[in-house]
Every structure is written in C-alpha cells, then in structure tokens.
Amino acid sequence: MTRPAVLVAAAVGLLLVLPAVLGSRALTIFVFIFFYAYLGQAWNLISGYGGQLSAGHAAFVGVGAYTTTLLAMHAGVSPWLGMFAGGALAAVLGAVVGFLGFRFGLRGFYFVLLTVAFAEVCRIAALNTDAVGGAIGLYIQFTGNPWQLHFPDNRGYYYVALAFMLAATGVAALVEKSRLGAYLAAIREDEDAAEALGVDTRRVKLVAIVLSAFLTGVGGAFYANYLFSIQPNAVFGILLSVEIILRPIVGGSGTLLGPILGSFILSPLAELSRSYFARSGLVGSHLVVYGLMLMAVVLFLPRGAYPPLARLLGLRRAT
Amino acid sequence: MDPVFVLQGLLNGLLFGGVYSLMAVGLSLIFGVMRVVNFAHGDMMVWGMYLAWLLAGRVGIDPYLGFVICAAALFVLGLLVQRSLVDRIVDAPHEMQILLLLGFGLVLENAALMAFGPDPQRVRSPLAAAAVWLGPVFLDVARLLTFGVAIGLTVALYLFLARTDVGKTVRAAADNGYGALVVGIDVRRVYAVAFGVGAACVGAAGALVAPILPFQPSSGLAASVTSFNIVIIGGMGSLLGAFVGGLLVAVAESLGAVFLAPSLKELVSFSVVILILLFRPTGLFGRRA
After folding, report:
1. Where are the domains of chain B?
2. Which residues of B touch A108 (CB under 8 A)?
3. Helix B265-279 with A79-103: angle, nearest 10 deg
4. Distance CA B236, CA B25 (A)
5. What is the Cα A304 distance to its own chain's centre?
6. B185 to chain A, minimum CA–CA distance in Å?
7. From the list A128, A242, A288, which residue is nearest B263 (CB)?
8. Which of B66, B118, B234, B239 suits a disulfide with B61, CB 3.0-4.6 Å?
9. Taking residues A57-76, what's their average pLDDT?
10. Rg of chain A taking only CA atoms, in angstroms
11. What is the pLDDT of residue A125?
12. What is the pLDDT of residues B18-54, one digit of tens each?
C-alpha cells in the first residue's frame, strides 16, 4: 500500500473504534465535526474546486431539512428515503441559482451576493408560510426508531455522520480525479482561458452546483433529525452559510482533506469554547477568539491548513 | 388602501433613506477603490451606535452633535484596520478577503456583546419625541434631522472627492489603480484614506440612526446585508448609485411594509437585487466592470 492509503485506512479504523471509549459529550462534538466536514465537502465541489463562491448554501440545507421533515410528518415517509427527495429539491434550487447566475455571467462577488440573496428569499418565504410552520418552524417527535433516523444512543448518530462524511469525501475524490474536476480547476484558475480551450464552462459549473446542492440538501435531513427542530432563521440563515464556508477555507479550499481538517480544527473549538466561556460568564468571548482565529488563518496560512500539514506528513512534495 | 397611509409610508421611507445612503456610500467607496467587500461594515456601524450611546449617556452629548466624534473614531479604526489587515489581502483570493473581514466582524460584534450586553439599547435625544404635522401626514423631527445630516455628509463626501487633491487621488486610484501608481500617487495611502472615510461614513450613519432605531450587538449583520443590497442595486463602486440606491431601497421597504406584511418588506429588496444581478449586474449607475 502507498503511504497515503495507509494513513487513510489507519484514520478510518481509528474513527470506527473511537466510540467505544468516548463519552456522550465527546460523541456530540464528533458528530458536529463529521456533519460540518460533510457540508464542507459538498460546498467545496462548486466553491473550492470550481472557485464559484457560494455564501448561500444554507438554502440547500433548509430545503432538504424541510422536505424530509414535511414528508415524514404528512406522508409517513422515512427520512432515509425523504433525504433523497430533499436532496433532489435542493438540486433543483441549485440548478436555478446556477442557471441564472452562470447564464448571466456573474463572477466573483456578484455570484456570492446572488447566492446570499437566494438564501434570504428562501428564509423570508419560509418565515411567512404558515403551512411549513412560519417563524416557529417544525418540531420533530423523537421516536428512537433507527428507521426514522432517530437513535436512542449518540453512537448511532456518530456512525451515520461518519458515513455521510466518508461518502461525500468519496464523491469529492471521484470528482477530483475525473474530467469534471480538471475542468473545474481550469475554471477556477482562469475561466476565460478554459473557455478558449473549449471547456463548456457554463455546463461544468452547473453540474458542480447541482451535485453540491444535492449533497447539501441530503445533509439537511440529518440536521433536522439530529436537532429535532428546524426554524427558518436557523436553517436558511446567513450564519449557517458562513459556518459551512469557514471549515473548508480554514482547512484549505479546493483540497480533498481541507473540509475535514477545517472541521476538526473549528468544530471542537466552537463547541468547547462555547461551554468553557459560558461558564466563566463572559458571553461572546468565545466568538471573539473564533474571529481572531479566522483572521490569523488568513494572515498566516493563506492557503489553509492542509498544504503545510501535507508537507509535514510527506503526502506532497514541498513546493 | 388609504392614500394618506401610503404617503406617510413613502415619507418615512424617504427620510430613513438618508442613513441607508450614507452606509452604502461608505461600502461603495471601499469597494470602488480596493475591490474589497467590507463584510464587517454593519459591525462597524454598531460600534458607531454604541459610541453615540456612550457619548449621550455618559458625557451628555446629543447624538446629533456626537456623530462627528463617532465618525472621527471610526475613521481612525478604519485606517488602522486597513493598514494592519486589509492591506495584506488586497490581492488575495476572494474567499480569503471574505474570511478576514467576517472574522473581524465577529470580533467587533462579540466585543460589543461583552462590553454592552445583549439587550437592545436606544439613544435618547430630546428631539426624538417631537413631530410636525404637514397636512394629513406627520414628520418625525428626529428622522428629519437624521435625513438632513446624512444627506449633508454625503454631499460633503462628494465635494471632498471632487474638489480636494486627496479626493482626486482617491478617484484616480478607483478608476485605474495601476495608472494612479504610474503617475506617482501613493496608492497605499489612498487605500488607507478610502477605508478610513468608508468607516467614518458608516460610523456617522450609526450615530444618526441610534435615536430612531433600537440596536444591539447582533444588529450588524442585517446592516451589512442591507448595505450590500443597496450597493448592488446602485452599482458596485458607484457613489451616486449608492446614494440613490439607499433612498430607493428605504422607500421600497417602507412601501413593502405598507402593502405587504411588515415581515415581507425585506423580500422586496432581495427580489430587486436578484433581478438587478441578472439583468444589469453593474447596477443602475455602475459602469461596465
């Protein structure tokens, strides 16, 4: 086996046996690590590899979460099946955003702000639609039934979240190696040059955003059934979009391990510092630290944490 | 629909538009010169608000005078931020620019939370209670004053850019940064001035809106997003666009609250933003990118 393959096998093996020794609180932190790494992988497809920054991915989480939950509540559809319906609807929304944005040639900040505007429209629409619970949102009854994506033991969520993360990483690895991945990288580096070389840039970007939106929408099903409540301001809000963006960028956007690494750095920090500083009574101080850390990443690791780490582990030749 | 009601909504919106314009002019100036979107814009504004609150509560300076101090303080903050942080990322990829300024915004917001607590505050100005009746509609004196000062500041900024030497170098750098460098303009200094002036605009806007609207540390995000919307509608980098866009968005939101449910008023501006992005991404007054 090659060196990277050994490292990956060892890491996955470790994560598989870890729940045997972890307490419930630590398991929760790992669930968040895996879940945000999953969302980061999905975001990375269009924004990291393709360079089309989206600051509205919460829209896809929200569409997935609402679709899955409404199907379960009104039609008794298991979230395991509903998540694909949620993903499909999110993919449709992704196709609309992508079609309009790319059709009209929006680039850079203009595309960023288009995605923000779409997510906000979704948020306000959900807030004002009584059929989906309005501002109160939807609450999910805990059943303890694994077929309903409910687990009495936190370990169940741990393994589901881990499987989500590994599956998304697998998809990203396939994309990275494929023609699509090469086209996306070409678009990120120089869109005009890619176009001149005959890449159908609009179609490539559309495929990437649809795939990204689908995966993110499927993640919404997990979100709903782990937290048992969905509110428009939480699932469609800018803050969730920002959380999705932060991890892959901190880890190294456009790299396979970046979203995972970023989530391992940020998710425990967010979780632990929240409880630590909340006890000491200094409300808000953990987010000051969080903000300072984000700034430090930009100033000292301008390409994210992955490239230096890869050099350290000998996964990549020093450049 | 009662026409008086509509007229009152129109007037309220227009008067509020002055503050929107001032916020957006600051954002647009920074973008126009540096091509950097200030994601900490609203959080800077919140500090302008709290500064006005402190000045009014502790020192007894009315916000309609205190806004000068707020603008000056935010100018210094903007200058420092540009010199120490933004200057290093002017040529960095977009995601890094966004990350840096989001991080800085988080620090500002939560520093305010630690210093002032989460409860909404309001600045008391003796003028805030007075109203004048103008036929069937009434004019809130505080809103009128806020509008007047905000418009005055925007005009002053325009004159600064149009008439003074420093202002001309700022416009030159916005037009063509490389060209400005070639003819001997200290572009780095221009960047610092532009970020400082942009921050001063939003600081003054914060002080001026503080007697009208209650605010809290988390108010910054909504203010940032509103500023983005206005700047897109008006045209990124266009000051005239930001000015007119501010008035338009304020009136549209106010009328949206009259004709639709108040909670739907934001839908109006976001829908306009999407249409503008698709059909005229350079905005109403922007030049071709």
Report:
1. 18-218
2. 94
3. 50
4. 10
5. 17
6. 27
7. A128
8. B66
9. 96
10. 19
11. 92
12. 999 999 999 999 998 888 999 999 999 999 999 999 9
In tens, the pLDDT along A11-36 reads 999 999 999 888 888 999 999 999 99
Residue positions counted in chain A: 319
> Which range marks the domain in which residue A63 is found?
23-238
A16 is a domain residue: no
In a mutational test of the A interface, the residue from B88, B94, B104, B218 whose CB has the highest number of chain A CBs within 10 Å is: B94
Domain assignment of residue A296, yes or no: no
Residues B278, A100: C-beta atoms closer than 8 Å: yes
Any domain includes A210: yes
Distance of CA A289 to the CA centre of its chain: 22
Q: How far is CA B233 from CA A5, A109, B239, in A?
A: 51, 14, 12
Which of B273, B278, B238, B237 is closest to B252 using CA atoms?
B273
What span, in angstroms and rounded, lies between the C-alpha atoms of A90 and A213?
5
Q: Tally the domains of chain A.
A: 1
Any idea which residue has 């709290």 for tokens? B50
Q: Where are the beta strands (DSSP E) in A79-227?
A: 138-139
The rounded distance, in Å, linking the Cα atoms of A24 and A29 is 9
Average pLDDT over all residues of chain B: 89
Q: For the complex shown, is ipTM > 0.95? A: no
Residue written as token pair 């800077």: B44
Helix, strand or coil, per DSSP, at residue B140: strand
Q: Evaluate whether residue A200 is within a structural domain.
A: yes
Interface of B with A in 70-129 (CB under 8 A): 85, 88-89, 92, 94-96, 98-100, 102-107, 109-114, 117-118
Q: Stretch B104-118: mean pLDDT, rounded?
A: 93
**Average pLDDT, integer, range A29-46:** 96
pLDDT digits (tens, 9 = 90+) for B229-272: 999 899 888 889 999 999 999 999 888 888 887 778 788 888 88
Burial B199-229 (b: 16+ CB within 10 A, else e): bbbbbbbbbbbbbbeebbbbbbbebbbbbbb
Any idea of the CA torsion for B21, B23, B26, B31, to the nearest 10 degrees? -90
**B232/A113 Cα distance (integer angstroms):** 9
User: Which tokens sit at A85?
Assistant: 């319906």
Among the partner residues B95, B271, B278, nearest to A253 by beta-carbon distance: B95
The amino acid that residue A214 corresponds to is F
Which residues in chain B are contacts of A295 at CB distance < 8 A? 85, 100, 103-104, 107
Nearest one of A239, A230, A74 to A140, comparing CA atoms: A230
* pLDDT digits 0-9 by tens, A103-141: 888 888 889 989 999 999 999 999 988 889 888 999 998
